[in-house]
Amino acid sequence: MITSTTGPQPADFADVRATNLAVVLRFVREHAPCSRADIAASTGLNKATVSSLVADLIDRRLVRETGLTENRVGRPATMLVLDGSPYAAIGVEINIDYVSAVAVDLAGERLLTWRRSFSSGESVNQGVAGVGAIIRRVVNRMAKEERQILGLAVAVPGLVDVQGTVRLAPNLGWRDADIGGDLAKALRDPGFPIQVDNDANLGALAEQRFGAHAGASDLVYLTGEVGVGAGIILDGRLRRGGRGYSGEIGHVQLDPDGPECHCGRRGCLEVMAGIGAVLGKDPSPGEIQVEIEESVRLARAGDAGTLATLESAGRSLGRGVSVLANLLNPELVILGGYYVPLAPWLLPAVQGELGGRVIASEAGGCRVVASTLGHDAAALGGAARVLDSVDSGRLPGGLSRIP
């Protein structure tokens, strides 16, 4: 049975089969190489059903046979692994001064990683046209490799509701924008699903699937870009909140008498531990990377002013992380974006604040670490969200091309 808001309804056979196909595909992803018998024993599906489902997945080129193994009791078994060679999942991140695009295959292996400059001063229509041009090039590259596009997910720094509408992206100057619908028009209805989500949410999905701590059930990802957002995974699931606005840690007030934030309030985490505070100045978007590199150079050289600035920003960041640790008790808080190269100097101050501010002993087991995914995390998380859709039963159809 499938439960809906109107009460229990009979489950459609196609729905049941799609669900079971997803169960088998996930098992192969997690346990390959494995046999049909392994799948049946672990999932509870009978052997005849598993054989039928595997045949379907092989026909779709999602799974392939890889030979026999004799390292088991009884007859040798034909082993299965992921195929997915005809497929690609695309993730894109829109930020204030760049657009990142990542394409991965079904197993998560990168097929393409691009980063292009982007002007956040443009209107929504101009921005969508620029992003659409980049996506078109990615799709055409995948088409030349004869890969079907499984889907596209786009990361935006701002409030994105559960329908995917960008309600407010202050650093981009966008409000109430249907980015997914606009991109579908710009791409001439490409034939694959387009999803839009907050950049921190997708960064968290990337960490859970691809990061150094992949598989963690309870983690928070902090973006560390011009804005500071939190993507929250609890009990293995991304938590968006009732309307999709969870994770706005950047506008938690740390000091009512602190500096003014662009949101109009004072002493927000973003203004006290964001990039401006970390650098001790407010550089233009195009200058941030150069300024970060200079701060790293000065910190390595032991420059007293730089070290003091980083320690102060680290303490403020630690206060914000302490709020997360007390409320959510995550296993991990992962610092991303521009925080990563400065993590050696930020982390000691963050950990020091955790020790004094988290009620539970040993900070409730919460560890703060730097991401290993770099600035591609949100884009990679977009690809992860597409793969999650496949794992949930949205299996591919025909080849998608953009003329």
From TrEMBL:
It comes from the Bacteria. Residues 24-65 form the HTH marR-type domain. Pfam families: MarR_2, ROK. Belongs to the ROK (NagC/XylR) family. This is ROK family protein. It comes from Nonomuraea marmarensis.
